[in-house]
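Milestone 3.1: sequence recovery, worked example.
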């Protein structure tokens, strides 16, 4: 295995992304190509005929795409970028090992880009990372700071006909905005100028390990931006150096809201943001519902302030923020008056935030949930079941299909049927229907005017197509 070269040498070599269509891989590939490197790749989903439009767009942007059979690995100068979870038996991995190619994980490569930028702005936490990264990236762009933004979700403000999958913004090298991931421990690779901590709650790791990872993250950040409303995040404040706090309920938070000023509707909300550094107040209009999104906006405003953007300018920019794909994304309202929403909710906190936003307004909720893997379902299944049972009422329905599975050696002995039993044991109304198609049939059968149908899940781009098709079926 070759040693990692200098940054200049790195981008003089060709890159090959195994799984180039993934939510973490695609934006990174776009940024690397934007730096002038030759980029090729493969994806199992492309070979299976899934989301052909996404791969056609990548080819139109100049990416050379190959079958995932090893044929694209042709030189020992190629740098193979692959998730650490990719099996050693995948043909690209086998061929790269035979040639002695340098192999890097997505996080390793992203951290090099981040740490060698003029200033890296990192967004961490169990939930809300993609939304805050999109908000912060948009604020920095609107402020003329020419940021490069690495996100895990499509940012609607940056979508164009040429770049329909705009989960990255390729800007300059002075500001690099990126979400950073605790689930694989790679958050430890980043050295932020500004580190944002949104929340700390159960996801892929136990709480003790999360506290250590996030505490170390704050200690490495020159300026820490911390959610004062989240007790676990606030408890880590002593680990930080310079700090800016934000919060809705916490009256001592430096970036907050004026009490009684929040006006929330089903698709937008307004509030008076207060900068307690000087007592100034700024009228915020946010085209995203839910208390969690107001908190996300405060996080982005506070991080931008730490980077030198006036609070007034950040608040004004967010009035034009159009949101992210699959983050409480309104697909449409059928002629029969049934609303369909596409959402990335997949862990207990994300699901709870989405369900609370739905339950703040009139109408029955039908929540379809496709778990994003068998492993995560074992890790957090009980908490997910508790969330659906607690947040939804007796007239609402939760429908689960089997977890997403694209192949591999994962243990599939325990699946969604266990979660349905746990929801029912806790007093909730739930159904297990193995296939997604059959779930769509069931939803079309039971949905009635005034219902809100939310399609929830991660790691599967085809969920958005499922949501659009369902809307058409609902008349």
């Amino acid at each position: 295995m070759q040693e990692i070269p200098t940054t200049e040498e790195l981008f003089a070599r060709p890159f090959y992304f195994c799984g180039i269509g993934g939510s973490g891989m695609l934006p990174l590939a776009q940024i690397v190509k934007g730096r002038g490197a030759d980029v090729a790749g493969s994806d199992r989903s492309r070979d299976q005929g899934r989301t052909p439009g996404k791969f056609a767009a990548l080819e139109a942007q100049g990416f050379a795409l190959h079958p995932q059979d090893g044929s694209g690995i042709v030189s020992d100068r190629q740098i193979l970028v692959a998730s650490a979870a990719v099996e050693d038996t995948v043909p690209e991995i086998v061929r790269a090992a035979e040639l002695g190619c340098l192999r890097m994980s997505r996080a390793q490569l992203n951290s090099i880009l981040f740490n060698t930028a003029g200033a890296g702005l990192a967004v961490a936490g169990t939930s809300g990372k993609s939304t805050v990264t999109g908000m912060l990236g948009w604020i920095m762009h609107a402020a003329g700071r020419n940021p490069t933004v690495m996100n895990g979700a499509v940012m609607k403000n940056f979508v164009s006909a040429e770049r329909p999958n705009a989960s990255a913004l390729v800007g300059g090298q002075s500001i690099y905005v990126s979400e950073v991931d605790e689930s694989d421990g790679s958050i430890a690779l980043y050295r932020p100028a500004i580190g944002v901590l949104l929340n700390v709650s159960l996801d892929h790791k136990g709480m003790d390990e999360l506290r250590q990872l996030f505490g170390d993250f704050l200690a490495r950040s020159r300026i820490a931006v911390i959610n004062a409303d989240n007790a676990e995040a606030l408890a880590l404040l002593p680990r930080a150096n310079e700090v800016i706090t934000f919060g809705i309920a916490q009256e001592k938070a430096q970036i907050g809201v004026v009490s009684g000023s929040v006006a929330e509707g089903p698709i937008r909300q307004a509030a008076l943001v207060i900068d307690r550094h000087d007592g100034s107040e700024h009228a915020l209009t946010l085209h995203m519902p839910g208390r969690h999104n107001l908190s996300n906006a405060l996080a982005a405003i506070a991080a931008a302030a730490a980077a030198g953007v006036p609070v007034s300018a950040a608040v004004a920019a967010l009035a034009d923020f159009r949101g992210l794909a699959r983050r409480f994304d309104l697909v449409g309202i059928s002629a029969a008056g049934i609303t369909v929403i596409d959402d990335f909710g997949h862990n207990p906190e994300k699901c709870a935030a989405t369900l609370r936003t739905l339950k703040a307004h009139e109408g029955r909720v039908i929540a379809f949930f496709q778990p994003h893997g068998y492993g995560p379902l074992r890790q957090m299944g009980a908490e997910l079941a508790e969330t659906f049972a607690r947040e939804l009422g007796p007239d609402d329905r939760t429908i689960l299909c089997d977890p997403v599975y694209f192949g591999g050696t994962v243990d599939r002995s325990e699946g969604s049927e266990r979660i349905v039993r746990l929801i029912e044991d806790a007093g909730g109304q739930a159904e297990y229907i193995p296939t997604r198609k059959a779930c769509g049939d069931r939803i079309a059968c039971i949905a009635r005017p005034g219902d809100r149908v939310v399609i929830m899940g991660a790691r599967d781009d085809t969920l958005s197509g499922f949501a659009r098709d369902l809307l058409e079926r609902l008349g």
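The two ends are 57 Å apart (CA to CA). The chain is about 35% helix and 20% strand.
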